[in-house]
Amino acid sequence: MKFLISNSRFLLHSADSSHTCCLASFFVIAVSHFSTKPNPNISFKPKPNFPYSSNPAHARLQHLLLEKSKVGFDKLDDALQLFDKMLLMKPLLPVINFTQLLTALVKMKHYSVAVSLFRKMRVESIPVNVITFNTLINCFCHLNRVDFAFSLLAGIIKHGFVPDVVTYNTLIRGLISQDMLQEAQLLFQNLIRFQLIQPDVVTYTIIIDGICKRGNPSVAVKLFKNMDKKGCRPNTVTYNTIIDCLCKHRLVDQALGLLHQMTRKGISPDVITYSSLIQGLCDINRWHDVKLLLKEMDVRNISQNLFTYSILVDAYCKEGMIEDAEDVIELMIQRGRYPDVVTYSSLMDGYCLRGEVDKALAVFESMKRKGILPNTFSYNILINGYCKKLKVDRAVDLFQQMPSEGLTPTIETYSTILQGFFHVGRHVEARKFFMEKMINQDVELNNVTCRILLHGLCQNCYVFEALSFFQILESSGLVADIQVYTILIDGLSKNGHLENARSLFDNLPAKGLRPNVKTYTVMIQAYCHEGLLDEANELFREMEAHDCLPNDVTYNMFIRGCLHNKNYYEAGVLMDEMFGRGFAADASTASVLLDLLDVQEQDPALLALCKKYSP
Prior knowledge:
Pfam families: PPR, PPR_2. The chain has 615 residues and is mostly helical. It has 34 helices and no strands. Among the domains are: 1-33 and 57-197, Serine Threonine Protein Phosphatase 5, Tetratricopeptide repeat, CATH 1.25.40; 200-303, Tetratricopeptide repeat domain (Serine Threonine Protein Phosphatase 5, Tetratricopeptide repeat); 542-615, no CATH class. 70% of the residues lie in helices and 0% in strands. Residues 1-18 and 29-49 have low confidence and may be disordered.
């Protein structure tokens, strides 16, 4: 048996999945030439409610298999031993019982083992049916081998069976799970085109869900509306899928319209429907509508679940409405819904956002006393809270406490501590922490960490050390983004290394990066600081040619650069242009103008500028 399992795993990793799309198209066309009626030459005909054997031992085993197909076995060995026992039974149990055992393995997520047992069944000439094939197709889809799943579709046809709607639903779901939505949609369209099956509500819901997860609510709504025209009535799950998608895209009124539509059609909303709508309304601060929906739930006898309450607590906390969040927690306890680590972590985050870290710590300790173990997210909230209050030592204590709680710090944890050290000016400890706790322990770094490190070093004049660390990060495989390069360019220029900054800037296209408005602004400021106004102006005009429009920061910074370098005419041109684009002079620009007037500068261009724009 162990040999079969390992051999199956080898098989799973030996096939090329590059032809999945071709397989999908081929099998859809091929199947269209087969009759949709069962093959009369096949003696087996599946029976949904197969009767128990008259043999008491067989009947007990069949009852056990039925139960385990719903929940799975407690141990994998129990399933394997039972399978071996079934092979030795005379007469053999019906195929439905073997399929139930495979289904139990699927429930346990032992997909490779199910594949191995299926192969053993074929070797032993145990008959199979379309349900068995569907179970195996599901296994291969979970193993991200949808190419093998399509091979089994051919097996169904070869054995004289007709693929059913479950077969195709499983394949469509498998394609979507492997980020092959276009292929899934093609398969769906061809099923209708060749009239292979009548897609059911599950088929439509799977496709709609895939489209929603791709962030295309308008396409999803179009398909949703098309269901009725095709004679397929959406169910609660379908409505929940589309409502959740609309809410995530802030199209809450449209989602509310669907709620009213489903109730008019006699389709009952559930707690998931309302939770999605409540989340959507919270995201756009429509608190009155939130309360109306909560009342509507009570009227419909739909109880808020832990997820609903956690949404409310999190939303109230993010808006600084801690008292409302505490009221929700009190209400949920009264109704027998006890807060979990997610709920308490949201409350902790709310206190930290208000700067009340000690209260967040009190919630943290209270949670532990109640037997609710904090998770990494809980620790990250507290660590971030203490760092923002400049209590980095307390944050480090919590960081060091995590392993004793069985928790591994995340990259967010490390990044927060690193930023905390820089924020309080302890750059030596920051560098030590980075090398000893992150580099030496092979922590997987990201661009956020890189930005924190390089910004902290550049701010403290360790610009060449920043470059050295940057090279280490690049050699470790990190692909730096434009923000990272902007920090380095800014650090180099402000520390008197304009040529190095210019070199980095000029090499951006070779790295596949385009400067953004901040990158251009930093470089223009560097030129102005060195009195190179021609270069600054050339770069400023180049921005628009590269579809990067200057913003108010760019204009104000360049105007101040012109004023400091006594190019008052150019400053005036830029002021006119800035106001024409709807931007205003900021306080720093106004202050420079006033300072120039105080020294009684008599340049005509400056006097004209001051006369035109001074209050």
